[in-house]
Write a structure and sequence with these properties.
Helix content: 25-40%
Radius of gyration: 18 Å
Largest sheet: 6 strands, mixed
Shape: globular
Number of domains: 1
Number of helices: 8
Oligomer: single chain
CATH class: Alpha Beta
Low-confidence stretches: none
CATH architecture: 4-Layer Sandwich
Strand order of the largest sheet: 3-2-1-12-13-14
Length: 306
């Protein structure tokens, strides 16, 4: 590949556990359904040690930046949000780690605001205020690292029980287009981060992203080279129409998924970006937990000319 190269790792759906003890008041909401689901299903397959194995492997590969596409927590209780903030500090410097929230990070009304305040250094755009601006929109944000522009979008909002949908607003779409155009004019490789898959039919109706058409229009109008998402806990590649050609849309398994479950074992994407505007080169590799759950192994490589 051409030089210089930029290494970008991508993880998602951390679902940090175990669940803390919650008060009756905290459970007297949508959280009760998630609490039951965790104890019946998720806790059997989501393991913190699995996440540590991925992060150790990522660090060993000396990546330039880490993208985290949502669902750091489970029920978005205050303790979970603060635990996730402490975990982020162990992962890396905010300048080298970019986060967008998922539906679990906005599980009940008020939790989104608490999470964004606690995680603000990791969701703060390069030109955003140093302190969390409660009265301003955070998303979409723009971060420029070397020849790469990272554009973070949010689909997180509180939903009723038994719903896990996301919402991408018209305002975000307009501002995303502006950021994409500016980054393109600057000759940058544009990576868009979002939690819900912006692909129709990629997930169940109750888990869908509302605003898929807006997002597709933003990508086709503004232009992008890569879209990263989570939410499905699956390793997937789809394509959207871009300004000058097709744009890969890449999903990844939950970073905490142990071996033996119905969903794919924990994994991360590693992208190596090189080239120049009009002749970008993108090498995409996926590394996953091995069958024994004791290490990380390579799954495959794709080289995409963009």
């Amino acid at each position: 590949m051409s030089h210089p190269m930029f290494k970008l790792a991508h993880i998602s759906d951390i679902h940090l556990g175990p669940l803390p003890r919650l008060s009756i008041r905290e459970l007297a909401s949508k959280r009760i359904t998630g609490f039951v689901n965790w104890h019946r299903n998720r806790r059997k397959h989501l393991f913190g040690g699995t996440l540590d194995l991925l992060l150790d492997d990522i660090k060993a590969k000396q990546v330039d930046h880490l993208a985290v596409t949502g669902d750091l927590v489970n029920l978005a209780s205050g303790i979970e949000i603060q635990t996730a903030a402490a975990w982020l500090k162990t992962v890396g410097d905010p300048l080298d780690t970019s986060v967008v929230p998922g539906n679990h990070d906005a599980y009940v009304p008020g939790s989104y605001e608490k999470a964004m305040r606690a995680w603000y250094p990791y969701v703060r755009g390069d030109r955003a205020p140093a302190e969390w601006p409660q009265d301003q929109h955070i998303f979409p944000y723009l971060r420029v690292r070397d020849q790469v522009a990272l554009i973070g979008c949010s689909t997180a909002f509180a939903t009723p029980p038994f719903a896990a949908s996301g919402f991408y607003s018209a305002r975000q779409a307009r501002e995303t287009v502006n950021l994409l155009r500016a980054a393109g004019d600057a000759g940058l490789f544009r990576v868009v981060m979002i939690h819900h898959p912006p692909i129709r039919g990629a997930t169940s109706f109750y888990k869908r992203m509302i605003g898929i058409r807006r997002f597709a229009a933003a990508i086709s109008t503004g232009g992008a080279e890569l879209v990263l998402h989570g939410h499905t806990h699956l390793n997937t590649v789809h394509w959207l129409r871009g300004h000058t050609g097709p744009v890969p849309v890449v999903g990844i398994a939950s970073a905490s998924q142990g071996a033996g479950g119905l969903k794919p074992r924990a994994a991360y994407n590693l992208f190596t970006i090189a080239g120049r505007p009009g002749a970008w080169e993108l090498k995409a590799e996926r590394y996953s937990l091995d069958a024994r759950g004791e290490g990380v192994e390579a799954e495959g490589v794709d080289i995409l000319a963009l």
